[in-house]
Amino acid sequence: MTIYLVIPLLFVVAVLQTSLVPHFALWGVFADLPVLFVGGWGLVAGSREGALWGFIAGLVTDALSGAPFGAATFGLIAVGFLAGLAEANVSRAQFVLPLVAIFLATVVYDLTFLLIVRISGHPVVWLESLLRIILPSAALNTALAPLVYGPMRLLHNRFIREEMEF
Amino acid sequence: MTRERLRNLVPILLAALAFVGLILHSTGQLQPLEGLLVRATTPLQELLSGATSQLGELAQTARDLRDLRQRNEELESENARLLLDNVRLREIQAEAALLRDLLNFKQDNPGYEVRGARVIGRVIGQDPSNLQRFVILDVGREAGLAPNMPVTTDRGLVGRVREVGTGWSRVLLIIDTTSSVNALTQSTRANGLVEGQPDGSLVMRNIPQGDVVSVGDTVFTSGLGGNFPRQLLIGQVTGVERKDFELYQTATVQPTVDFDHLEVVLIITDFEPIEGTEETDSGSGEP
């Protein structure tokens, strides 16, 4: 998929994340669209493209976030890369693996995010954040994963012959 | 007679048929046929009528709901205003008494003396992460905003400006886990540090064991540290945790600001925080 499409797409995703998504909170948390999109793309396109998507999405998300710059970028690169590692096995575990991958991707993203926040000198309440935010957030993202993963597969099939242009 | 001419006669024939029907109806001779049609169409009519009625009721209910909601909002707003007035009056009373007792000093306007210059900012976005609590405003450097300026609403303290750009600024909310604000309770003047929690609630830590903190007490900024003006409303104490073996007690605080529905905020631009005393983002949580 050409990078000229990826950038505006992920930009729109990040804008939606800051404007619309917070209004639809469930269990005190809201969905994490960048994680869903980057994780979804990693699952269908592999680690390399997943990481690249994570990088682009992370930059845009960081630009819109009040967190230390890089927190989202690192987290999303990790999400894209790790989700991409599961790519080879997705066809064998068509349904369960994407869900497990998105759950773990969210946990990895949030923990990476908090780690960067902590490294930047800000206090982090690890256990409470894990129990009250990260796990509910991972559950919510997992529930929403099929809504994103399906279109991601279609999109990937559409552009399957194309490589990302740097 | 050609077919074309017959077609031209159809309207006339139909009009004539209608006229005959009118006559038959007026004489009552069409009644059996009419009854048959009515019976055949009754179920459908009932169905449609019921549906329309329900839709009408639904619309009416929606209108009533809207009216009630509006009324409720008005009452809530009035209640909040009265509560705030009440709190302010009690604060004025408490402060006046304190000053009279200690300093024998008269103070005419003990309220929000630092709120002279204000900028109204509209909340246009929130932080993309569940783990951070920021809002993005549509005003920035051009409006005189600078980092560390306190942000408030008519209901209480919101946070402080963290970053400023042209046409935008980012505000760290007091419910963020990296935020801490020096505060005191209204009735007993107990000092503590109000900190944000991961779930968006507030706790007041580092309250000395000897101080009395009671549920329902109002919490204000104390002004200690010099990063926030004094007497900005933060919230109300909803619970107190006191353990004999600990140096300090902790209180849970319900913020008066509804952070989920922030739309317009006020930025206090004429307050100058004291340099070098980072109250928010301190990270230590220690007094």
Class per helix and strand makeup of chain A: mainly alpha
Number of helices of chain A: 7
Overall tally of structural domains of chain A:
1
The residue fraction in helices of chain A comes out at: over 70%
Helix percent of chain B reads 25-40%
Count, helices of chain B:
2
Could you say which overall geometry of chain B the principal axes of the C-alpha atoms support?
elongated
Distance between the termini of chain B: 110 Å
- Please tell me how large the radius of gyration of chain B is: 34 Å
Sheet with the most strands, sense and barrel status of chain B: 6 strands, antiparallel, barrel
What does this structure look like?
The complex is a heterodimer of chains A (166) and B (287). Chain A has helices spanning 3-19, 33-45, 47-64, 71-85, 87-90, 96-119, 126-158. The longest helix of chain A is centred in the C-terminal third of the chain and has 33 residues, at 126-158. Chain A is an all-alpha fold and 166 residues long. In chain A, 75% of the residues lie in helices and 0% in strands. Chain B has 287 residues and is an alpha+beta fold. Chain B folds into two domains: 3-58; 116-274, Thrombin, subunit H, CATH 2.40.10.350. Chain B is 33% helix and 27% strand. Chain B has helices at residues 3-26, 31-102; strands at 118-126, 134-137, 150-153, 156-165, 168-173, 180-185, 191-196, 202-208, 218-221, 233-241, 248-255, 264-268. In chain B, the strands form two sheets. Chain B has a six-stranded antiparallel β-barrel with strand order 1-2-5-4-3-12. In chain B, strands 6-7-8-11-10-9 form a six-stranded antiparallel barrel. In chain B, a hairpin with a 5-residue loop joins strand 7 and strand 8. The chains are: A mainly alpha (166), B alpha+beta (287). The interface between A and B is medium-sized, with 34 and 26 residues.
Question: What topology does this entry show?
Answer:
The complex is a heterodimer of chains A (166) and B (287).
Chain A: H1 3-19, H2 33-45, H3 47-64, H4 71-85, H5 87-90, H6 96-119, H7 126-158
Chain B: H1 3-26, H2 31-102, E1 118-126, E2 134-137, E3 150-153, E4 156-165, E5 168-173, E6 180-185, E7 191-196, E8 202-208, E9 218-221, E10 233-241, E11 248-255, E12 264-268
Antiparallel strand pairs in B: 1-2, 1-12, 2-5, 3-4, 3-12, 4-5, 6-7, 6-9, 7-8, 8-11, 9-10, 10-11
